[in-house]
Write a structure and sequence with these properties.
homodimer, alpha/beta, Rossmann fold, N-(1-d-carboxylethyl)-l-norvaline Dehydrogenase, domain 2, EC 1.1.1.169 (chains A, B), NADP (chains A, B), KPR_N (chains A, B), oxidoreductase (chains A, B)
Amino acid sequence: MIIYIKISFFVSKMSKRSYAILGTGALGGFYGAKLQKAGLDIHFLLKSDYEYVSKSGLVIESKDGDFTLTQVNAYNDIEKMPQCDVVVVALKTTQNHLLPQMLPSLVRDNGVVLVLQNGLGVEEEVAKIVGNVSIIGGLCFLCSNKVAAGHIRHLDYGQITIGGYASSYNPTGITDKMRQIADDLKSAGISIELVEDLLLGRWKKLVWNIPYNGLSVILNARTDELMSYVHTRKLVEQLMYEVAAGSKSCGRIIPDSFIQTMLDYTVKMKPYRTSMKIDYDERRPLEVEAIFGNPLRKAQAADVNLPQISCIYQQLKFLDEKIRV
Amino acid sequence: MIIYIKISFFVSKMSKRSYAILGTGALGGFYGAKLQKAGLDIHFLLKSDYEYVSKSGLVIESKDGDFTLTQVNAYNDIEKMPQCDVVVVALKTTQNHLLPQMLPSLVRDNGVVLVLQNGLGVEEEVAKIVGNVSIIGGLCFLCSNKVAAGHIRHLDYGQITIGGYASSYNPTGITDKMRQIADDLKSAGISIELVEDLLLGRWKKLVWNIPYNGLSVILNARTDELMSYVHTRKLVEQLMYEVAAGSKSCGRIIPDSFIQTMLDYTVKMKPYRTSMKIDYDERRPLEVEAIFGNPLRKAQAADVNLPQISCIYQQLKFLDEKIRV
């Protein structure tokens, strides 16, 4: 007689999974609050807003409806947080040197680290830090700002594209854990897309982020300005083709039609100040390595040179270092 | 019996050649004043400073000694200027659309047009405008500013490298006219180098101008800042190698050692705000086409792509157009 017991923290869709939100800002605060409102067990890590939020909770102004959470589980010390099923990394990538101190004690065995960050390569770093967990990457299309302590204003969009991470970014297909996380997010009213190949998804997001984030900072320009001048319009397109060349160097094909769609989409967008431009204007460190440095190094490892992205990268490194002098 | 008469305005070194100076600014005003002081017959075209200079003359403050010319031949109308042996083009290249109205009536048959401008390709344009004249290009290494009407402050350097222009920039070697012009300039205390191949000389000057002029504007930086940050230091070098690739596409070889010399030279230089940065700060049109656009098109015509220079060019076009909105 064989007795077989499957132990899992993800037994059914209906189990109340616990989430740790690392970085309760415009992004982590918004998604975390939505999950708590949907009835999930959420634990927020805060820094500067800890005192305020632990007393007064979180206020979300949103185009989908405003709401307030008067009580939240707020922490300013990772040691005090309970182990969670899902740890959401919603810090800026410029804070990722903190992850080795945060993740191992926080995520349950067989749990999930959900990386909601820009750029490339962060899942690889997470995999080096934690062993017996699943890693899922999420690409957020979100316009949201923190307007005061514990007060987040959600302006537009909000959907998340998630994909599973396996060693060397081999495509995982759609896994059960992805479906379970997606169900939780959907139950909170968040629009979700599942993709079989996270690396392709990340390169596709870079098609937009590399030209617009980079040039908006360097040229002090909004998206509409970059698109209305013929030379920057052309440069944006050339940079997008270089991103596609970088993607191809990793064996991931981005079709020309996708580039055209991104260009058309941006022309139709409202004039937009990119997240990197906001960081620059606020004199916060720029996510240069995750968005530019890592893709360049990935391509370089395959002997593919991306000269215009390299030019933008070097210019941004200069600006990023100079504002911090 | 054959009577052979050689008619020339350049009969001997001692003849007093007449010079027209188009553009009496920091550069044209400085060299023109030096030539007049040396006894040559000089005629200055002015715009905004015409009233002042025609009454009060020119004041030159110079590290080589100050001097004042109380009386100068000043004009604000090209029609009133006498025909001259040598027409010195000392306008910014952004004014070159005016040359077809200026040059034909002003330069004597068998005279010289001396182009003291930055960039590439201007001699070709001049050749299309005037027929029976020699065209000589001059590369000025000069730190000079106009500090008030008719008042020029010469800070450093001053040497001119001149080379003859022939159709398609075929090297002319050292011509008699080059020697005669050089003698006039030397008689005025101006250090002169003669080169056999003007196009090689112009590409070599671009090795400095393209990275430093371009990046100083885009990154709001002086030369010392560009050299003290590792990423811009590297980008400067990469841009220099692209200039050498552009030069090679025209059959002109710039050795690696020249690039190293330019880097070393700039590290040792006093912190310097480039001429293009000064133009940008003063909201004057930038010489983007002469310094960036023409070299790119020359290389493109030989099927050579210069992606990082192209990136800088497109960024500068955006900034140049935007400040004039």
